[in-house]
Amino acid sequence: MTIQEIRKDFPLAGRVxxxxxxxxxxxxxxxxxxxxxxxxxxxxxxxRGVHRLSQIAGAKYLSSRRKVATFIxxxxxxxxxxxxxxxxxNTVAQGISFRTGDRVVISSLEHHSNFLPxxxxxxxxxxxxxxxxxATGHLESEDFREAIDERxxxxxxxxxxxxxGTITPIAEISKLCHEKGALLLVDGAQSVPHMPVDVxxxxxxxxxxSGHKMLGPTGTGVLWVREELLSQLSPLVVGGGAxxxxxxxxxxxxxxxxGFEAGTPNIAGVIGLGRAVDYLNTVGMDWVEAHEARLTEQxxxxxxxxxxxxxxxxxxxxxxxxxxxxxxGGMPPHDVALLLDEAAxxxxxxxxxxxLPLMKGLGLSDGVxxxxxxxxxxxxxxxxxxxxxxxxxxxx
Length: 396
Ligand SMILES: Cc1ncc(COP(=O)(O)O)c(C=O)c1O
Fold this sequence. Notes:
The protein has helices spanning 3-8, 29-41, 52-71, 85-95, 116-119, 141-147, 170-179, 199-202, 267-283, 285-304, 333-344, 356-362, 379-395, and strands at residues 17-18, 79-82, 103-107, 127-131, 152-158, 183-187, 206-210, 221-225, 243-246, 251-253, 309-311, 323-328, 346-347, 349-351, 368-372. A seven-stranded mixed sheet has the order 2-8-7-6-5-3-4, sandwiched between helices. The chain has a four-stranded antiparallel sheet with strand order 11-12-15-14, with helices on one face. Helix 3 crosses helix 9 (267-283) and helix 6 packs parallel to helix 7 (170-179). The model has no long low-confidence stretch (mean pLDDT 97). It has 13 helices and 15 strands. 37% of the residues lie in helices and 16% in strands. It is of the alpha/beta class. The protein has two domains: 30-282, Aspartate Aminotransferase, domain 2, CATH 3.40.640; 285-395, Alpha-Beta Complex (Aspartate Aminotransferase, domain 1). The longest helix is centred in the first third of the chain and has 20 residues, at 52-71. It binds pyridoxal-5'-phosphate. Pyridoxal-5'-phosphate binds at residues 84-86, 111, 113-114, 158, 162, 187, 189-190, 210, 221, 354.
């Protein structure tokens, strides 16, 4: 597919310059059609009815599970659908029976959604250690060697920083974890949509990500759990649709993912997510990665030359993806974002980016302006951003 063909599939792409895909991505027509088709053609609950509509809906839902599993190199039995990456991470944090004295290791780069669920465990006597990123925002595997000891039950780290765009050396950290018998949870919310990700190559035990950041509908997320660990995890929520048997006194959950998906799931959303995976496969994740790398280089080189703009973290293209944060001297990030919207309908994220511990560490109490790129963005759009910023800042 060419970039022109891709852009035709995104109704909003021609109307605004959307540079906020790290928050939520635009939705292509096949995904919107997949959601609409569910409501128009086979709107029924799944796993509950024997009638034909329920059977069709159930088969489509299952097909999405297969697609998502294959997309990350996992098995369909290992996929739990959730409403968000946050819900997926909380499922693990609350689902493992942590004991007093256990250690959990996280990093200073984490999004609040991979911070709070672990800090909360301190109430249970769990020690939470935060490994600091380097000045350019990179996590070094050597810094984890010291933090991961025999008491470490779990390491929970982001694959790609949602603020700085830097990539974590997960495979190296995985070796350290497994040497010490610790589990590894990877927050893939910013990696799975943008690069080929394979759970076996990463060597992780849990992978959490959002559907709505990878062209899928909002209200979709995924928790991949290594198969042998499923039986050791308790679900966050129990109820209908997840049971093998119930009596007046007790219940037995269905083993495997079904036991983790109590209640009516986001059926239309998950079907849409399956279509999103089809879409990304058609374009090819290698293409997505290379396309974004080209735009990132253009963006970084352009920002360097704009008066008062300071790129935050890694200024080069090394070990990073197309998430680029910057500040503007004398202008708060929200003002920059409003200016870009008003001047040229450019949508960027501003503020603390749900990563206050990182912002505080960087001494940026107002946060940053964050530009995040995706497959539908073009060189022209990056150029318009740079020109708009340049013009506005040379005036003020
Ligand atoms: C790295 C990272 N982790 C977790 C999340 C939370 O994702 P969700 O909104 O799907 O819960 C985000 C969202 O921005 C993120 O960037």
